Amino acid sequence: GNATVTFTAEKYLDGKATDKKFTFELLDETGKVLQTVENVNEAITFDALSYNNAGTYTYTIREVAGTDYIVYDKNVYDVEVTVTKAESEFVADVKYSLDGEEVETPLRNL
Predict the structure, then answer these.
(1) pLDDT tens sequence across 31-44
(2) Distance between alpha carbon 92 and the CA centroid of its chain, in Å?
(3) In terms of CB atoms within 10 Å, which end of the chain has fewer, N or C?
(4) Rounded to an integer, what distance in angstroms lies between the CA atom of residue 65 and that of residue 45?
(5) Which 8-state DSSP code applies to residue 105?
């Protein structure tokens, strides 16, 4: 079967979960925006992606700056999905990184 992954991140404002809405984008390796989502409290969840070919897929996650007084996070997180085939199943391994350093979950902590 296909491998399915759901990218997640977290948003905190002044170190706390926030009910204020922020917008986040998932981009492919060419810079094309694939998905745009808003946080629900601190949780940022993109729609699941499905893979039926082995290989390495790269994406980026970024926050979309608004026009208000808040300082928006300019960090761009890299996401690497490595899909392998084990017998008849595809398996996906997801790694998040920031500036080349692997992170467990992208955090938008402002």
Answers:
(1) 999 999 999 999 99
(2) 15
(3) N
(4) 18
(5) S
Q: Which two tokens stand for residue 78?
A: 């890299």
Closest CA to 106 of 25, 34, 8: 8
Of all residues in the chain, the percent with pLDDT exceeding 90 is: 67
Cα dist. 57→1, 11, 47, 83, 95 in Å? 18, 24, 16, 8, 11
CA-to-CA dists, residue 109 to 11, 39, 105, angstroms: 6, 13, 12
SS3 per residue for 40-104: ECCEEECCCEEECCCEEEEEEEEEECCCCCCCCCCCEEEEEEEEEEECCEEEEEEEEEECCEEEC
The model carries a pTM of 0.90
Burial of 27 (0-12, 13-18, 19+ CB in 10 A): middle
